[in-house]
Description:
It contains three helices and nine strands, in the order ααββαβββββββ. It has about 140 residues and is an alpha+beta fold. It has an eight-stranded antiparallel beta barrel with strand order 1-3-4-5-6-7-8-9. The termini are far apart.
Amino acid sequence: xxxxxxxxxxxxxxxxxxxxxxxxxxxxxxxxxxxxxxxxxxxxxxxxxxxxxxxxxxxxxxxxxxxxxxxxxxxxxxxxxxxxxxxxxxxxxxxxxxxxxxxxxxxxxxxxxxxxxxxxxxxxxxxxxxxxxxxxx
Length: 137
């Protein structure tokens, strides 16, 4: 029994979270938690709730993070024009940022604040403003 405790503890510690808002401990890897289809839950711009504004601009926003390091993003801009984007993703070396590069585009970075199986919180800079986007699956 004692021989099982040390390897199990090592696995748990290697997968423990480094993100500001947690979780403090997870038995799933960061990649396993990120692989999901994500939808906007809440958006804060400079600390002000802008959820309704963003949801009216990015209608039916859907971000699918895939295991082959590709992603698909789609929404209906202003509920008028269908937008879709594909690209690649990876973690930064310290795994604190999600780096994503659209095909024929330049790399962007989102700081990961929280990464759970059903919650993914990010912080980014848009138009010189700090924007926090809280995703749910």
